[in-house]
Amino acid sequence: MHARIGRLGVIVVAAIVQLATLVLAHNLVYLARYGSRFNEELVHSGHGDGWKAAAATSIGLSAIAATVAIVRLLRLHVLVRRERTAPAGSRLERSALLRTWLRIAPALALSTVALLTLQENLEQLALHGASAGIGILITPEYAGGLWIALAVGLLIGVVVALVAWRLHVLATRLREARSTAAAKRVQREAARPALVIDRPATSILGRRSA
Known about the structure:
mainly alpha; 210 residues
């Protein structure tokens, strides 16, 4: 049950991160295309109240996810400090951060490109009855939209990887500290001398008088 809840939480967080990355990439592409006419062109291209609501929702969900992550980090940090463990990184390789980023960032960047391509084609189809196809983000109209989407995905991946790596570091240190403390308690129990019961001395005269 706990494992199922954990997987569901990971899926929810991944969806929130993906939505926020998509909204950010979309807005940056339009900002690069239109500059100071950014808001005006958003409205003209069909991004009205619906888009504003989606952007606001993504910001709100991202804020909630960030708050939960910060609270989790602080809680683990306090628990680790109570256990008085060794500094982070003494047993965990720093290369784990790079591996975490490589596992998250490329997938996030590619999925952002795919979703943004789909979204822009649907918008073009709704407005003009035709779309530019799979290469829409590399057309001159989109001012390097492909590279902007990739860069946003990779940079957001850095933030997500840092949080995931730090959570892993603190959780691992806490498990190691508790395991070490439990082993020491077992050793102390084993080293404790056995209770010896002294039997009262008896004598022949005492037995005869009894």
